[in-house]
Design a protein that fits this description.
The chain is an alpha+beta fold. It has four domains: about 120 residues, no CATH class; about 100 residues, Elongation Factor Tu (Ef-tu), domain 3; about 55 residues, OB fold (Dihydrolipoamide Acetyltransferase, E2P) (Beta Barrel), CATH 2.40.50; about 120 residues. Helix content is about 35%, strand content about 30%. Strands 2-11-14-13-12-15 form a six-stranded antiparallel barrel. It has a four-stranded antiparallel β-sheet with strand order 3-10-8-5, with no helix packed on it. Strands 7-6-4-9 form a four-stranded antiparallel β-sheet, with no helix packed on it. Helix 2 runs antiparallel to helix 3. It starts with a helix and ends in an 18-residue tail after the last helix.
Length: about 475
């Protein structure tokens, strides 16, 4: 009885060892079925430029002061709506009022001096007239004495005296005329002094008027930099008192676009953006301007694109960060594949025998170059509207992958357009069609496990990949 039990146990043990050895022996694997695929689709495709920007008013005015002094009154605060010409602050005007009074007094003094100069002109003119009359009388008397001398009634000495007197009176008349000219010049100088004093008075009055700070536009105060009692000093640059946004319902986003993408951005293109405050709300705008001035931050060159948009409810505030997408091109019916399909690399062990052998026979550098060429760059030249080459793997109905070379077009960052081939060579695979399955990920290459006997006795069996399509034989 015991011998039969021992024989039965031995047979069972041998059967178990044999079954385990068969299951652990590295036989050929079956077809791979755990490919990750995606379907080729047709539909709209839009190429976009993604960037960040800052929400700003279309027009914001820095309100400053042209005069220095202490603020005596501040009437506007943050978010205050103001009208053009409305008083929003006042600087203590006492010093400027005194300057106005001094300038007015100087003007009165200049006017008084001008009156004196005018009187001097009149006096000089009278003296000149009297000197001319005396000269004329002396000339007539000289003429009479010349006749008397010719008749011998007066002596030559008397005639000489009359001649000298006439000459003296003539010189006195000329001197009086010159004095009149001097008086007129003094009067003109006095009148010029009046105009100068009037200018000084007007300048003092302007400075006095500048002590009243008024809003230059209709808008909302978005920044107040001063308080009552603070002293402002206007020297080479006017100090900033307020910033007033002219209109918060018509705003813009100043977008920093990388130099690699700025060539695709043009005025008139549509743009959408979101802000962190309202992540579920998408706003629309239009590119209004692409500024040619570059910004260099840590050797990164960016350009500013201005996106104009409407803010009717005033929900968006100045200074918010916007995540902008500018649509640069669009296809309404594009044949598109996921970008992940352009990055798939299928291990040689998972390829059919013919494809694997062809790939393995290629030299190492040439093979690597072929793979690098076929990998494609989604979002590279293709994303910028140019043509690019790529490689995808189509999954055939029998479960084997097929390599295809494709021409790439637009890309939106997640999908890329597949363009028709330039020419179809004889014997080449059929081009991609809508509904085809392409690989988006590949499983790792299978490795053969060591046999049970080698595991039991410490040995290790070579890991040799088996053909993917070879069937497994049962016994």
């Amino acid at each position: 009885m015991r011998s039969w039990t021992a024989k039965g146990g031995g047979l069972l043990l041998l059967a178990a060892v044999g079954a385990a050895a068969w299951w652990a022996w590295p036989g050929p694997s079956g077809p791979v079925t755990d490919w990750r695929t995606a379907a080729v689709e047709r539909g709209p495709l839009e190429a976009v430029v993604s960037a960040t920007g800052t929400v700003n008013p279309v027009l914001s005015v820095n309100v400053g002061s042209q005069v220095s002094g202490q603020l005596a009154e501040v009437r506007a605060d943050f978010n205050t709506e103001v009208r053009e010409g409305e008083v929003i602050a006042r600087i203590d005007p006492k010093t400027f009022e005194l300057r106005v009074q001094q300038a007015r007094a100087d003007l009165e003094a200049a006017r008084a001096q001008a009156g004196t100069a005018e009187a001097g002109v009149a006096a000089a003119a009278a003296n000149a007239a009297r000197a001319r009359l005396d000269a004329q009388n002396a000339e007539r008397d000289l003429a009479r004495r010349r006749g008397l001398r010719d008749q011998g009634f007066i002596s030559a000495a008397e005639f000489d005296t009359a001649s000298n007197l006439a000459a003296t009176q003539a010189e006195a008349a000329r001197a009086a005329e010159a004095q009149t000219g001097v008086a007129r010049a003094q009067a003109e100088s006095a009148r010029a002094a009046i105009r100068q004093r009037e200018s000084v008075l007007a300048s003092a009055e302007v400075d006095l008027g500048r002590t009243v700070i008024r809003s230059p536009v209709d808008g909302v105060v978005i920044k107040r930099s001063v308080s009552v009692g603070q002293t402002v000093a206007a020297s080479l640059q006017a100090p900033e008192l307020f910033i007033i946004a002219r209109n918060l319902r018509d705003m813009q986003v100043e977008v920093s676009v990388d130099e690699a993408d700025i060539g695709r951005v043009q005025p008139g293109q549509t743009a959408t953006f979101t802000v962190d405050t309202y992540p579920d709300l998408t706003h629309e705008g239009v590119v209004e301007q692409v500024r040619k001035s570059a910004t260099n931050v840590q050797n990164v060159i960016t350009y500013t694109a201005v996106v104009r948009f409407a803010n009717p409810d005033g929900r968006l505030l100045p200074g918010m960060t916007a995540n902008v997408r500018i649509a640069t091109d669009r296809r309404e019916d594009a044949l598109k594949i996921p970008n992940a399909a352009l990055r798939v690399k299928v291990p040689d062990a998972l390829l059919p025998a013919a494809a694997s052998g062809a790939g393995a026979s290629a030299p190492g550098p040439a093979r690597n170059a072929r793979r690098a060429e076929g990998a494609g760059r989604p979002g590279g030249e293709a994303g910028r509207g140019g043509l690019n080459r790529g490689r995808v793997w189509r999954l055939l109905p029998d479960g084997t992958p097929q390599e295809l070379r494709v021409r790439l077009g637009l890309s939106d960052g997640s999908s890329t357009e597949v363009l028709p081939a330039d020419k179809v060579e004889p014997g080449a695979p059929a081009p991609l069609q809508a509904g085809d399955l392409v690989l988006v990920a590949s499983p790792p290459a299978p490795e053969a496990a060591p046999g049970l006997l080698n595991q039991l006795f410490g040995g290790q069996q070579a890991k040799t990949p088996q053909p993917a399509a070879a069937p497994r034989v049962r016994f």
